[in-house]
Design goal:
Chain lengths: ~700, ~170
């Protein structure tokens, strides 16, 4: 926006062939301060440079260096995002402003987005319901893939790999511009073998399993992604359409999946790269249309999207209880289509910016397979918000906003495909009743940004909400992936969250210090609570609501000792308590233990094109547990990262990035990993390498 | 200059005070953090590893359940172990064999009864509330029309807080 205005001004004062001598010009960089003053929420900007430099195998692992952000490992080298301890359906992942809708509730469902198509990202560490509606209760991971090319033709090719699971990948991007038209296309191919862990055996649900060559059998997989975008970029008007498809197939760890752990006839150990039963595959298709129109004071934006998430989970059929052995291996299948429309208007007048928007989403989900976990459902929601930002002075900005959402869910009834003897009759049990629920939520947020001298301070207070998902309302069946019976609760109210967070930062030429505390209260947190009951031979977990209090903080400090040397330290702490209900006094599942990082970086030259960094990551012991967790010992690891880019002929550049984790090959457990529950340690020494050519 | 120093200090103070208040509650002293226990202490437990039964027999199940606060319920499951998978919860299971009992028959004689299905037993039982210790006594009749062979006898026990304990025993049905 500013660049356009600047360009326009320069054009108007172009002199006619005269020589003008300019005095030395001092340019003061205010980029960091300006970014922080843009919003009163705690946000972190992730540039493409950061993504390139910190490449660590998968998007979430690359982002893990940001304080407050975690990658929850789910097996097969994939991870789910977690911000300040909240993830699953309490975190919204958006791609170009549209919420990504898959089956986020699943413990072993990864993020179906091609990480190499991402230009930049933004992490909002706190509730952002005002702009994104439901599900943004813990935070938002905003991914952007819509950088507009400026060159007639440009692109990049990257080859990458990782030693821990012998991952090999290729990603190619191309883009071009002709006049006002532009296009972009990209493709990514990844293959990986069974995941390696520094142990010879693991213990799962009282079964003792010996591993061959320290590998988790059947955790190999592959990923195929592609996208095409075409658009028109005018002075005031811009529109583009992007079609993307992401396909991935990965095996489930063979010995820890299924009704009964059995050593099957399948020879899992014959190959490291083959994918046998049980496995999952998922295909996510997205069609996204993005249109903006702007003039001096007014700007309008309209985003429309269609998404289809098709997921199948296959495993060897076995009988269980009264269910006879099925005649196929389709355990679960979900076909979910989501239609989204988001429109917003922004009006700038003097010191005021008024923003308003309307969004609507419709989800249609159909299930199949012999295993029941969630019913068929449709959900429709609409929401409208209005937000006002007022710059009282250049360094003091206030903002406040209000949003109203209305959602309707229709859950279909489901009857077992097999009969259960009840008394003398045989009955097809009903697992989920037909029910319709509607939810209305009013949310708000207010904040302040204040900067003076070298300080930038901001504080934000707000209320967010989350509509209970069909799994929480209508589940009634065995979750084979984790050996327990899960039952929903049709009476659940939408979750509400009140959060107060602040950020205080101070910077000069040498130092940059940031402290970000937060306080969060849920009057009705939806929690899957373990009970003392048995249903169909497995322990019953059911959904209840409780009051939950959480607070914590992140802090980081960077010191530029010299032009070449840089020191960095960061830490984070999180506390959570259930204040009522069945598990009063307990914490929440997968509570993040405190952690601290200390590192040193050496830059080869001023431009920062080449660097080497060594970092120590220390994690405290976690005794804050809920059933069925176990306490986890603290640990520390040493990690190395390095990168360099070389200028080649013309505008071509070659870049190399390397990331070596756990240099000392220490054996440790991560409390927030899904695999912790089956005593699987984290990977040992693991090196990720990426070589790319940009032209 | 003074103003901003005070501003910064004030913000820090507000944060610390808020956290101080919220950390002041101490209602988590009575949390149950221990799973319940399945033991054979003080009684002759049945079944034990590698115990043999005949079809038509009665398994006189006997074990002691204990918990530090309050017991929940328990479940017994018996399933076949023809594929020799193993459980690790037996104390005398030095190399985690679980399924390797001394006089392991070869399974040729199973061919005679190949029509008979494997025995599948899965029953849950309640424990009276408020108990910290419970001697579980149960007579489980072994059906006659099942396939003999190696079986696993699994005990699952919960406590009131939702912790679960497991025990797996290898048995033989003749």
């Amino acid at each position: 926006m500013i660049t356009l205005l600047l360009a326009a001004t320069l054009c108007m004062v172009e002199p006619e062939d005269t020589t003008v001598t300019l005095d030395a010009v001092t340019v003061t960089g205010q980029q960091r301060r300006d970014y922080q003053m843009r919003t009163s929420q705690t946000t972190v900007q992730v540039s493409s440079e950061f993504l390139n430099r910190n490449f660590a195998g998968s998007l979430m692992q690359t982002l893990e260096g940001i304080p407050g952000v975690k990658a929850m490992a789910i097996g097969s080298g994939q991870s789910k995002p977690v911000i300040r301890g909240l993830g699953f359906n309490r975190l919204a992942v958006t791609e170009d402003g549209i919420k990504h809708e898959g089956q986020q509730w699943g413990d072993d469902h990864g993020l179906e987005i091609d990480q190499f198509a991402i230009d930049r990202a933004e992490v909002i560490k706190g509730p952002a319901a005002l702009l994104y509606g439901s599900d943004a209760i813990g935070g938002v991971l905003s991914l952007y893939t819509n950088h507009v090319p400026t060159e007639p033709l440009s692109g990049s090719v990257q080859i990458f790999g990782r030693t821990n699971n012998e991952q090999l990948g290729l990603s190619a991007k191309i883009g071009g511009r002709k006049g006002k038209f532009f296009f972009r296309a990209n493709m990514t191919l990844i293959d990986y073998a069974d995941f390696r862990v520094p142990t010879d055996s693991i213990q799962y649900y009282s079964y003792w399993i010996r591993l061959k060559d320290q590998r988790l059998r059947n955790t190999a997989g592959c990923e195929r992604d592609g996208s095409v975008m075409v658009g028109w970029q005018g002075y005031n008007f811009h529109t583009d359409v992007r079609v993307s498809d992401s396909y991935s197939k990965s095996g489930f760890f063979a010995n820890a999946h299924g009704l009964e752990v059995r050593l099957s006839d399948i020879d899992y150990d014959s190959s490291r790269r083959d994918i046998d039963l049980p496995y999952q595959w998922v295909n996510h298709l997205k069609v996204l249309s993005h249109t903006t129109w702007r003039n001096d004071a007014l700007s309008a934006e309209l985003n429309l999207a269609y998404q289809n998430n098709l997921r199948e989970e296959l495993s060897e059929p076995v009988s269980h209880g009264y269910m006879p052995k099925p005649d196929n291996s389709l355990e679960r299948r979900f076909n979910k289509s989501t239609y989204t429309a988001v429109g917003s208007l922004r009006y700038e007048h003097g010191r005021h910016t008024l923003q308003g928007g309307v969004s609507g989403e419709y989800q249609h989900n159909r299930r199949d397979g012999w295993g029941f976990i969630i019913p068929d459902f449709e959900t429709g929601s609409v929401g409208g918000f209005v937000m006002e930002r007022c710059a009282l002075r250049d360094n003091l900005i206030l903002n406040a906003g209000l949003r109203l959402d209305y959602a309707r869910t229709h859950i279909h009834s489901y009857l077992d495909w097999y009969a259960t003897p009840v008394g003398s009759a045989k009955v097809y049990q009903q697992r989920s009743a037909d029910q319709r629920r509607h939810f209305t939520s009013l949310t708000w947020s207010a904040g302040v940004n204040y900067s003076v001298g070298q300080w930038v301070m901001k504080a934000n207070v707000g209320k967010s909400f989350r509509v209970p998902i069909p799994k929480e309302l209508g589940a009634d069946g065995i979750n084979y992936h984790i050996f327990r019976y899960e039952r929903g609760n049709a009476q659940l109210d939408p979750e509400e969250s009140y959060q107060l967070d602040a950020s205080v930062s101070w910077a000069d030429d040498t130092w940059e210090i940031e402290v970000e505390p937060y306080l969060n209260y849920f009057p009705n947190y939806i929690y899957l609570s373990p009970t003392a009951q048995y249903v169909e031979g497995l322990q019953l977990y059911h959904y209840t609501q409780a009051r939950v209090l959480r607070y914590g903080l992140e802090a980081q400090a960077t010191c530029r000792l010299t032009a070449h040397w840089q020191l960095h330290a960061q830490g984070e702490y999180l506390y959570a308590r259930q204040k009522s209900g069945e598990k009063k006094g307990y914490t929440l599942p997968f509570s993040t233990p405190w952690s601290a990082d200390a590192g040193v970086k050496y830059f080869f030259d001023k431009r920062g094109d080449g660097f080497v960094g060594l970092n120590a990551h220390i994690v405290g012991r976690q005794d804050e547990i809920v059933p069925p967790e176990k306490p986890t010992d603290g640990y520390w690891t040493l990690n190395l990262s390095a990168g360099k880019s070389f200028r080649l002929k013309g505008s071509t550049a070659l870049s190399v990035a390397m990331h070596a984790d756990n240099l000392l090959n220490r054996r440790y457990y991560d409390h927030t990993s899904y695999y912790r529950l089956i005593d699987v340690p984290e990977p040992g020494r693991n090196v990720a390498l990426k070589v790319g050519v940009e032209f | 200059m003074k103003n901003l120093k005070y501003m910064g200090l004030l913000m820090a103070l507000v944060c610390i005070v808020t956290m101080g208040f919220t950390a002041c509650d101490s209602d988590d002293d009575d949390k149950d953090m221990t799973p319940p226990d399945i033991s054979s202490e003080g009684l002759t437990a049945n079944p034990i590893n590698c115990q043999e039964y005949q079809r038509g027999d009665v398994i006189p199940f006997l074990y002691l359940f204990t918990d530090n606060q309050e017991l929940g319920n328990f479940n017994i499951e018996i399933h076949n172990n023809a594929d020799h998978h193993s459980h690790s919860t037996e104390a005398d299971d030095d190399d985690h064999g679980g399924s390797e009992c001394e006089d392991d028959h070869d399974h040729d004689h199973d061919a005679e009864d190949s029509d008979a299905p494997y025995w599948i037993y899965n029953e849950s039982f309640e424990i009276p509330s408020g108990q910290r210790s419970h001697t579980a006594r149960l007579d489980i009749p072994v059906p006659t029309d099942i396939k003999p062979g190696d079986y696993h006898f699994m005990i699952r026990l919960t406590d009131r807080a939702g912790w679960q304990q497991l025990k797996a025993i290898a048995i033989k049905i003749e």
